[in-house]
């Protein structure tokens, strides 16, 4: 009974502390976004893509892989940059979208902003965001417009210097997307891309640490992914305890309760509680039996 109660208190209550009031339970669900859901289709298939090509659309996890940091791009102001400029000691949220996407890419960025707005972590101080267009036809002016839109939605001091919107040529884009496992195809009839959805979190050194799938991301998942990618250099003691209670599931791209760890933690807490109870009882009994603690009798 005690163990069951402590188990619930140890992690369930902590997890509940990260549930955001007003956010429905469905908002925490993940969605694979590959590829029919949200795509413009014809007869349940993309209009200009044959089934064999559609099979290429995938978000292949490459955990631990190195992001090629020497790749050249242009930022929203048109300045030439390399990816390594944004990996400067902080974990990085990496998103691959194209700015004129009619549906899914907008939902990816909307979902990211929704999660970021409830985080206590500070952009620029604790993490950086890099959004790269995988459409080589898109130019910095379009990136600047998209950045202005999302800074307005984010409404967070420091975001302007911490969120970068990039464009690049076909070669750099292909090297980057292949390195991170983001596979997509172009639909010439619709002049659109069939692509997966999700975000990635990389370490300050550029190693891929976590993939979060879909178009909505639980604030708890985003926070824990950033804390873990930073090697616990950001976050709090509560985050470290939550990372003990939760483990990352690559298949779902989410953090779930680590039952065995909870049982172990419950066992330790049970021993602490019982040990304290036994020690308190022993001290109480000893005090009652100690003759020096007994009241003195009447003088002879």
What does this structure look like?
- This protein is an alpha+beta fold and 300 residues long.
- It has a domain at 31-233: Glutaredoxin, CATH 3.40.30.10.
- Helices cover 38% and strands 18% of the residues.
- It is built from 9 helices and 15 strands.
- The strands form 6 sheets. Strands 8-7-6-12-13 form a 5-stranded mixed beta sheet, sandwiched between helices. A two-stranded antiparallel ribbon has the order 1-2.
- Strand 10 and strand 11 form a beta hairpin.
- The protein is elongated.
- Residues 1-44, 234-244 and 258-263 have low confidence and may be disordered.
Give a short summary of the structure.
It is built from nine helices and 15 strands. With 300 residues, it is α+β, with helices and mostly antiparallel strands.
List its traits:
elongated; 300 residues; 38% helix; two-stranded antiparallel ribbon; five-stranded mixed sheet
Shape: elongated
Average pLDDT level: 76
Number of strands: 15
Sheet of most strands: 5 strands, mixed
Q: What is the first-to-last residue Cα distance?
A: 55 Å
The CATH topology of the domain at 31-233 corresponds to Glutaredoxin
SS-derived structural category: alpha+beta
Count of helix runs:
9
Q: Which runs of at least 5 residues are low in confidence (pLDDT < 50)?
A: 1-44, 234-244, 258-263
Numbering strands along the chain, what is their spatial order in the largest sheet? 8-7-6-12-13
What is the gyration radius calculated from CA atoms? 26 Å
Query: Helix coverage percent of residues?
Result: 25-40%
Order of helices and strands: HEEHEEEEHEHHEHEEEEEHHEEH
Per CATH, the class of the domain at 31-233 reads Alpha Beta
CATH architecture of the domain at 31-233: 3-Layer(aba) Sandwich
Assembly type of the shown chains?
A: single chain
CATH homologous superfamily heading of the domain at 31-233: Glutaredoxin
Beta-strand proportion: 15-25%
